[in-house]
């Protein structure tokens, strides 16, 4: 995906993806902060991926799970109301949230922000041709206000000196240049558009527009003063290049438009494109507006230039903090302003195309979302969310409406009971599992002793759980230092963040009968193994390719049945419980340790009383077997190539020797 490539993400950056689902761009951002890190180490930066839709959050979590990262937080908020955590604004001094020291950060701000906003999606027509049947000009007009609000919220969360990307997969200037121009006007010099024409020179792009028209109810407008007065709550001045408002009454009033349509015997559906010089819809007499802002620095990527989809990208750079006046543009009064009225009225306008299909003018295409604005006090009073399954790091796929009203002790971590179903409380977020630091020192010390975790690895204080009851914790998650700082800030500032997923699943409780008798009840999960493997010194076995392959094929093998008897003997000497089996890359002594790097192949197993059992899913086992086959084929081809080169080198040396002997003539010797 193109937009993240212009963010210039570094491993130490705090990154916010405001409309993240389904997760492709978030995965790119995670790769960028991890690209320079060594196995077993963590980058200093982190990514917060946000999305409004609960089920799309599930998809986002599933997509990013492959990254096996502890530097990710997934939140579930409206992007235009994404909360800011400020310690000095709402400082809660509560020892149960952690120690008495101040967290590493006092305000949640970001070095990079990606605003890939909801849009009409007409740039994806190639891969989704059904969009054309549903598309109409009202889609872009209805989303304009929401897109401006999301962009302004992103700017307010951006650090001074930071960079923000505004992007859509639409070619409609109302959703693109008009939004960028409105953001620039509202920020009044606090931000600038960055010229990135020299970046990615192989990418064919076109400059942004400085002049465009706005279509509404079948009529093209070149200036806001031509918009009928009764339509100005829908078609706002910010949609036009200059952004100017006009106090005088429009010459094109409601009666004029109605008369023209009736006289021509046609009703405007807004679905057919009419040119401005169409005699059926006379052009307004005003001169076309031209923007004075440097909108040519925006990028338009059109499908027919490089056989791609269409994208619009604008890169902002924050020069200074927003003033008090500018910040007022971010807050939403309880009484809707013109932008809110526009979104609300457009939402209720249903148009019918030629096939009789009803279309919601604010509704995006497949893969997009429709969002409506809400009152500003949402952050103070919280949101009544659907009931979700508990004891899980992923929100439930099936939501149910919560009938019970919030109890007065909602913020104390109590539970609501509805029939047989209990809902845990995370601050003011009902139906969402709490995020709690795991501080059971007895269990933590036992885990460190059992696996021989090195003291140099930041372990204590970096474990969290999603269960209030420490005696029934099923999963323990690991978080990086900066994710820890954000969680501590969120707790102390009043739990503004509604967290759907956080951290890397490191340990899982072994619930089998044999597992309850093991010295350590928690086994290392497949997701957490790559991170912790370089830092454990116990419960490790190094297997030959044959024994490793047999483990993946047969799942359970007795100690005496391994091809290499030394491996079976070493396995029998391990403590009962979880162990890690590492594929040895050579035929050296199995007792010798090998350096862990990105190419290391390892699996979690369970050392039973008489056997070793694989603790990996059948799908993962099949993938590892295929990977082993590829590695073996590559190694064989490499060895054959090396032997061939050696033979050629040997023949070449013989020839050179003969030539040298011939050159030793008496004249040469004399």
From TrEMBL:
The UniProt record lists the keyword Transmembrane helix: no
Gene3D superfamilies: Vaccinia Virus protein VP39
Name by which UniProt lists this protein: tRNA (Cytosine(34)-C(5))-methyltransferase-like isoform X1
Cellular localization per UniProt: Nucleus
Pfam family, one: PUA_NSUN2
Domain of life, source organism: Eukaryota
Lineage, uppermost ranks: Eukaryota, Viridiplantae, Streptophyta, Embryophyta, Tracheophyta
Annotated binding of S-adenosyl-L-methionine, by residue: 19-25, 51, 116
UniProt keyword terms in alphabetical order: Methyltransferase, Nucleus, RNA-binding, S-adenosyl-L-methionine, Transferase, tRNA processing, tRNA-binding
GO cellular component: nucleus
